[in-house]
Amino acid sequence: MNLFEKCVAYTLPQEVQAMGIYPYFTPIQQTTATEALIGGEWKVMVGSNNYLGLTHHPKVLEATERAALRYGAGSTGSRFLNGTLDLHYELEARLAAFFRKPAALVFTTGYQASLGAIAPLIGRNDHIFLDRLDHASLVDGARLSLGEVHRYAHGDFDGLSRQLARTPADAGKLVATDGVFSMEGSIVDLPRLVAVSKKHRAAILVDEAHAVGILGEDGAGTVSHFRLGNHVDLILATFSKSLASVGGVVAGDADVIQYLRHHSRALIFTASMPPASVAGALAALDLLQKEPERRTRLWENTRRVAAGLRSLGFDVGASQTPVIPVLIGDAFQAMATWRALFDNGVFTHPIIPPAVPAHACRIRVSMSAEHSSEQIDRVLAAFERIAESPMSFRAPEEAIKALAADE
Ligand SMILES: Cc1ncc(COP(=O)(O)O)c(C=O)c1O
Question: Which end of the chain is more exposed for a tag (fewer CB within 10 A), N or C?
C-alpha cells in the first residue's frame, strides 16, 4: 500500500467541516483571561485550562517581558548544554518546596515531563500500571519505556491489586494516575490507591495537571488534598493550566531527580523551556501562593455552573472540580452542540473518541476564577437554549462509521 494512501482517504475533517460543525484548530485572534475573539466576535471562554485566570495578570506579563529582554526569546539549547538558566533552577527549587519534595526537574512541556519521568525509570524488568482514563502523556511515557505496561479499569483498585499480585515480588513497580481526571473532572481515590500500591510495594506517581491551584490547602494538588505526600513518590505537573505558562515538572527524591536529569531523553534531546515561560510560571506560582482567594472564587464559579447545568437537566457525570463534562451522546451530536453554544457566544470543546468512548461524547466546560457573574449568566443562558431545543443532528452513516474506526 502506498504510504500516503491513508492520508488521501482520510476525508473526515473535510466532511465534518462541510456539515458546519468542525470544532478544532479554531484560530483565536485575541484573548483576555476569560474571552476569546474568534471570527471578529468575542466568546466567553469556558474551554481553557486557565483555572486561576493568571495568563493576563500584569505581574505575569511583566515577568515574561523582563525575562525575554534579559535572556532572549528562546534558550536555543538543551537543559543539558546551554539551555539551563539560573531561572530554571529557581523554578525547580520553588516547585520542590511547593510539592514538599526534596528535588524537582523542569521540562519544556507537561507532556515531555511525563515521557521524561516515566520512560527512563521503567526498565526492562519493571512494570507500570495505569488507570484506563490516565492522560495520554502517561500512557506514552509508559509506551516509550522498556518495561511492561498494565492498564486497569478506571478506579478499579481490586483489579489493580490483582495485576500487582501477578507481577514478580521483586520487580520494580510504578502505579501512575491522574490526580484529577482531565475529561471527567473527578478526583482519584488516592487513599485507596496508596493502600493497594503499598501492599504490593509499588511506587506511586500522581499527575497533578488539573489539580494544581485547585485542590489542597495550599493549592498543591491532590496529594496535598489527601495529605498523602509521604506515600507518593513522584509528582508531575504542568505549567499550562493554573500556572498560566507552558512547561512541566517532576518532583521527587533527590537521587531519582538526579538520575532523571541524566537519563531523560525528553529533557536532554530538546530545547529547554524558554526564558519568558519560566519567568511567567514563577510569577504565577507567586500569585497562586499569595492570593488563595483566587481558589475560593474558582470554586464559587465552579459550584454555580455545575449546579446551574444540573438544574437545566444536564448530566455532568462524576465531576468534582472546575472541569465539568456535559454528557451529550454521540460525536456528531456533541459537535453540533458545540456549534450551537459557539453561535450563542460560548467557546467550549466537544470531547469525542479516542479521548472518550463513542457513546459518552461530551462538551467539556472548564471554569476560571476570573469568570464574572455576568459571563456565567451568558454560559448558562446558552446551555438553557440547548436544553430547550436539544440537538436532533443526524450525521451520515458513513461519517459515523469513519469516526468509530478512529476509536
Ligand atoms: C492530565 C494531564 N497531564 C499532562 C498534560 C500535558 O501538559 P502540557 O500541556 O503542559 O503538555 C495535560 C495537558 O493536557 C493533562 O491534562
Answer: N
